[in-house]
Amino acid sequence: MTDAIEIALISDDSGQLNSISVWDIRNGTQLMQYRGGGASRKSTLNVINGKFLVTANNVKPLLNFWALNNSDTIQNVKFVMPARVNCLSVSNDGLYLVAGIKENIYIWQISTGKMLTMLTKHYQNVNCIKFTDDGSHFVSGGEDGQVIVWNLSAVIGDRFSTDHIEALHVFSDHALPVTDLWIGIGGLSGLLATSSKDRTCKIYDMASGTLLLSLVFQEIITCLTLDRIESSLFIGTSQGNIYHHRLQPPPRTREYHITNDDEINNKFKGHEKGITCLAISLDEQTLLSGSEDSSVIIWNIQSRSLLKILPFKGVITNAVFMISNKVMFNHEEKLELVSKNFQRMINTSDNKEIVEVVHDMSNEEPENILQCYTNNNSNNSHKYSRTTRNDKTDTDDSRAELERLKKVNKELFDFCAKNVMT
After folding, report:
1. Phi-psi region of 399 (alpha: psi -120 to 50; beta: other; left: phi over 0)
2. Distance, CA of 229 to CA of 250 (rounded, Å)
3. Whole-angstrom Cα distance, residue 402 to residue 104?
């Protein structure tokens, strides 16, 4: 298969036939299977750089990675967690993995396997966690009803003094456990939508931390998703119903109660048990819903008509859309994941680690304007290093460092303006 098509990645909690299956949503045929990882945990399926897949085991404290064109798990690296993972998310650049384990949040650097930090702001289990599309922030929701927005750079920068790390926003508007999160396009400028067992869906402006809208439904909400222009909201409930709510024009009040008429006129009915996951296709014509009744239904959004039913052996835990690429069906090409065994605790000996940002000033066009290295052997480049120290620096050194960083920033800006924007 050479044409790029939109496919669905689906997993269930049985793990009898496979860990993840790949489906062509146009005709409902199965294209591929990924095996060897057991049953996949809910809210843990992620695609890394369009070349690798990762999920957490539903029973054991393990992560499983697959190359996109290989049905078997990657075996040369061990991904053992401190405990069973409740949820996880990978940044779009494929550099960082953040996981909710019990009431704690752990962050790893995938390429080195280093545990960068552990956050302990939730009081109960973390249920869901997601990165923004630019990877600058991530959001966590827990059993304690809290939704917390984190700045990734701030969290990693203070990774040896986690008690002093402050979250960007802490929302405590939900009265019961948070069940799902959705983050819009645009990084911190996007919308944040949350759902809870308190039967409400809340929509926030992440930049300001303002609650924009609270929708109150008559059923317990288990999952949600929005379209890309953030005008249509889809809600899955514990009774197996899916509701479509249009956000334009917005209600006149901040809190809006969904009536019986609203639900009847905008209901997708086909599942017999609670909805576990929802996903919208890239053309926004198709809705994918997974359920506790061991089935996935493909819907036409405009007509709310049922197109296909895909049967499974267990409760559906993950269902996501992605665009297939050529490497997926090219089994001869070898994909290697750059990673090491994941650490199960923070290594405090790394507090003097030097991170170098190398700016290539040669005449050749660089593949990336900024490249990060950990060695000291680089030619034709200016090296700028930042060392985390335990001892205090005096005022003169601080001022000199500030001036040097200003000079570095100006050089980088001039280089970008000359080589990228022209």
Report:
1. alpha
2. 14
3. 35
Return the percentage of the chain with pLDDT > 90, whole number: 64
* Residue 242 or residue 398, greater confidence: 242
Q: According to the model, what pLDDT value does residue 381 have?
A: 37
Query: Please, are residues 140 and 100 in contact by the beta-carbon 8 Å criterion?
Result: yes
Copy the structure tokens of residue 265.
Answer: 């006129």
pLDDT tens for each residue of 93-108? 999 999 999 999 999 9
Given a cut of 60, whether residue 126 has pLDDT beyond it is: yes
Cα–Cα distance measured from residue 153 to residue 155, given in angstroms and rounded to the nearest whole number: 5
Tell me what the mean pLDDT of segment 351-375 comes to.
39
User: Residue 122 region, left (φ>0) first, then alpha (ψ -120 to 50), else beta?
Assistant: beta
- Distance (Å, rounded) from C-alpha 272 to C-alpha 91? 35
State the pLDDT at residue 162.
60
| Sequential DSSP letters for 132-174 | -TTSSEEEEEETTS-EEEEEHHHHHHTTT-GGG---SEEE---
Distance CA 317, CA 310 (A): 14
Q: What percent of the chain has pLDDT over 70?
A: 86
pLDDT per position as a tens digit, 162-183: 667 889 999 999 999 999 999 9
Q: Position of tokens 């119903």?
A: 241
Compute the distance between CA of residue 233 and CA of residue 246 in angstroms, rounded to an integer: 6
Mean pLDDT over 30-36 rounds to 93
Task: Single out the residue of 124, 125, 119, 47 nearest to residue 90, CA to CA.
Answer: 47
CA torsion through residues 360, 362, 368, 373, sign: negative
108 contacts 114 by C-beta, under 8 angstroms: yes
Q: How far is CA 418 from CA 234, 338, 365, 370, 407, in A?
A: 45, 32, 12, 15, 17
Does residue 14 contact residue 313 with C-beta atoms inside 8 Å? yes
Q: Residue 352 gets which letter from DSSP? A: G
User: 195 to each of 121, 144, 179, 270, 285, how far by Cα in Å?
Assistant: 20, 13, 6, 21, 23
**How many Å apart are CA 194 and CA 249, to the nearest integer?**
20
